[in-house]
Amino acid sequence: MRPSFSAIHLKIEHKRELKLLGALFIFSHFPFEFFQLSFEKTEKMALRMWASSTANALKLSSSASKSHLLPAFSISRCFSTVLEGLKYANSHEWVKHEGSVATIGITAHAQDHLGEVVFVELPEEKGSVSKEKSFGAVESVKATSEILSPISGEIIEVNTKLTESPGLINSSPYEDGWMIKVKPSDPAELDSLMGAKEYTKFCEDEDAAH
């Protein structure tokens, strides 16, 4: 059975009302200049506006003051990679011990919470680090966080690539994003650090508390 003319008319009017409502919504949420931009620029502006409103809703910290590597907000991010064979500190640094050398960096969980890393402050080679003492800092789009050494020892190498490419900490935290290599002065300190399972549980509990 074919629809009557009146039924077709009602459908058309309904579509017009929906389009009008959609147009009113767009004009009420975006400035006039928004519509003078090209489609590509419009899309980018919309994404920036969405990101800004999302950040405000989550109340992300944008403080430039230094802090330890703590979760930036309360949404659980425990699905970050935790590798077997490494040792982990409760300040979210990792240690890979091979022979007489220990490589140190920050964990995937830490960089995940920090967001995009834009600057890395590193120590000088031939210096020394002490357990649970700061040896550098990582600055992201959200905050600046001190990096604490999980162990004590002499710095034998620094990853200078991070000076030009700080984003390696985001893209490859356990490989290209390592920070320093140390000759441990007290290898027994490694025994006090967490294994992969312990660290995973630690992250889950910490996120739940926030």
Descriptive overview:
- This protein has a domain at about 85-210: OB fold (Dihydrolipoamide Acetyltransferase, E2P), CATH 2.40.50.
- It is globular, with a radius of gyration of 25 Å.
- A hairpin with a 3-residue loop joins strand 7 and strand 8 (about 145-150).
- The protein has a 6-stranded antiparallel sheet. The protein has a 4-stranded mixed sheet with strand order 1-8-7-5.
- It is an alpha+beta fold and about 210 residues long.
- The chain has helices at about 5-30, 40-60, 110-115, 160-165, 170, 195-210, and strands at about 65, 85-90, 95-100, 100-105, 115-120, 130, 135-140, 145-150, 155-160, 180-185.
- It contains 6 helices and 10 strands.
